[in-house]
């Protein structure tokens, strides 16, 4: 079950000070062990709510802000479920996005378009398309289940003053817009610090940077700001997260298609 958008955004069994490859002999085994430890450390929060501001920025630096509310819930044996509701500006107010993440199958995703008064299912072949005009793709706006990728440990590296593992992961989803991703994982938090995305032609497409992590419930780390930069278009999107709440009592009924239609 997972985890952090990703959004995307963009999730061992060993203590921090022990060598991580005690039980992992190959680069692939070590990469998978790191991914599993990310998942293990971020399991058990049950559900969460947060508010966020999405700042869209074109190649000239012009900005547009969109305010949203997001709710998420862990589902045992499956991926997380999430609901995003747009509150401002007026042209997107009432738009809502529902995602049911799956480990091995294509995620189920729906978009409520109030102007058309209908719910649109996001096609499995369109997951690489831009989410609400942002630099995040639909496949980025789902929990990152361990089974969604194969992994390879590359090296250790210091990034922004933090010790990190660098792993390479390859999407198992055949219709993914990405050939591979490089992920810098904080050795203390076991949360991503940066992700480089490479398109199907293996060209560097985007970089996602995570900033200002804070700990909640004495265990779970959440970013306060995410910066997605598109190197091919010059555009970028910032997500600023606020007012995290956990274990609020959300249920399955809060994440079905009827809930999407009730979104306000």
What characterizes the major β-sheet? 13 strands, antiparallel
Runs in which pLDDT lies below 50 for 5 or more consecutive residues are 2-22
Tell me the helix content: under 10%
Overall mean pLDDT: 90
The rough form would be described as globular
Task: Predict the CATH topology.
Answer: outer membrane lipoprotein receptor (LolB), chain A
> What is the H/E order?
HEEEEEEEEEEEEEEEH
CATH class identity = Mainly Beta
Radius of gyration: 18 Å
Oligomer: single chain
Q: Total number of β-strand segments?
A: 15
Output the strand order for the largest sheet.
6-5-4-3-2-1-15-14-11-10-9-8-7
Structural class call reads mainly beta
Structure characterization notes:
This protein has one domain: Lipoprotein localisation LolA/LolB/LppX (outer membrane lipoprotein receptor (LolB), chain A, Clam). It is mostly beta strands and 264 residues long. The chain is globular, with a radius of gyration of 18 Å. It has 2 helices and 15 strands. It has a 13-stranded antiparallel sheet with strand order 6-5-4-3-2-1-15-14-11-10-9-8-7. The protein has a two-stranded antiparallel sheet with strand order 12-13.
Which features characterize this protein?
264 residues, 13-stranded antiparallel sheet, outer membrane lipoprotein receptor (LolB), chain A, mainly beta, two-stranded antiparallel sheet
How are the elements arranged and paired?
Layout (H helix, E strand, L loop, with lengths): L26 H15 L5 E11 L5 E11 L7 E8 L7 E5 L7 E6 L4 E4 L27 E11 L2 E10 L6 E9 L5 E8 L4 E8 L2 E3 L3 E3 L2 E6 L5 E11 L10 H6 L2
Antiparallel strand pairs: 1-2, 1-15, 2-3, 3-4, 4-5, 5-6, 7-8, 8-9, 9-10, 10-11, 11-14, 12-13, 14-15
């Amino acid at each position: 079950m997972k985890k952090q958008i990703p959004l995307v955004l963009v999730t061992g069994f060993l203590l921090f000070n022990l060598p991580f490859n005690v039980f992992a002999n190959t680069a692939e085994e070590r990469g998978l062990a790191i991914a599993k430890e990310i998942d293990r450390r971020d399991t058990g929060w049950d559900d969460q709510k947060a508010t966020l501001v999405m700042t869209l920025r074109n190649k000239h630096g012009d900005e547009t802000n969109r305010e949203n509310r997001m709710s998420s819930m862990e589902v045992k044996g499956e991926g997380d479920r999430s609901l995003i509701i747009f509150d401002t500006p007026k042209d997107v107010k009432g738009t809502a996005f529902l995602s049911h993440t799956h480990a091995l199958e294509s995620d189920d995703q729906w978009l409520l378009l109030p102007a058309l008064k209908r719910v649109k299912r996001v096609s499995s072949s369109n997951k690489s398309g831009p989410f609400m005009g942002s630099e995040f793709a639909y496949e980025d706006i789902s929990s990152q289940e361990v089974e969604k990728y194969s992994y390879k440990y590359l090296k250790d590296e210091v990034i922004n003053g933090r010790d990190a593992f660098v792993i390479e992961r390859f999407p198992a989803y055949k219709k993914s817009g990405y050939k591979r991703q490089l992920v810098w994982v904080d050795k203390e938090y076991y949360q991503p610090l940066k992700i480089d995305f490479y398109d199907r032609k293996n060209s560097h497409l985007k970089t996602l940077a995570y900033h200002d992590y804070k700990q909640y419930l004495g265990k779970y780390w959440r970013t306060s700001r995410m910066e997605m930069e598109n190197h091919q278009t010059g555009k970028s999107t910032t997500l600023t997260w606020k007012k995290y709440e956990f274990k609020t009592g959300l249920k399955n009924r809060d994440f079905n298609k009827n809930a999407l239609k009730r979104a306000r």
